[in-house]
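Student:
Attend to each token:
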Amino acid sequence: MGHECNDASKEFTWNDDVETKSEVTEIVLVRHGETTWNAAGRIQGQMESELNEVGKKQAVAIAERLGKEERPIAVYSSDLKRAKDTALMIAETCFCSEVTEVAALKERHVGSLQGLYWKEGAEKEPEAYSAFFSSQNDLEIPGGGESFDQLCDRSMNALEHIAKKHKGERVIVVTHGGVLRAIYLRITQAASAGKLLNASVNVVHFRDEKWSIDSWSDVSHLSSVGFLQRGFDGDSKP
């Protein structure tokens, strides 16, 4: 694997003209640090919210951990600020000069639920709330939201393009709970992804056009910082 970060532009563009190799590509998927809205139980979706003090400490902790591991060739991030801020701390510690933004890695648009508190979602936006937790994966969330299938398709497409761009290399991708859930369920075909915790490390491998999970929801680096036990859980109603 290489030892210099990819000198990519701030705007990531797909490149389908890649050579087929058989090496394992390792992608370290990181959920952003805790935000003010995470702590308050407020639904973010694609709206912006800041890392809180715990979230900033989490970002430092995960950066320190990843800085001690094999150096990544590149760091990618969702274009939402909470992910970018987490990614910038990681990139600095891993000696990567730049974070490449990928809009397709942003959180799921959850329609009219965005900005509400989870505890009030069922009452204020019952149709959107029901659609979010529906087992009907092609059902779009009222208010301009995405279906789960749409989220899975764009998330996996983005991940596959990154994997093919970095055959046989190690990269870090900072994204969101909903995206991580989509990736896990699409790869494993499991019934549930469980809780996706802030600042968790989740490692996937891509080889010969096939995905596998190497490790999932590791928060051992947060022992002295702490994290929200409830995490992101799109599999069950709060």
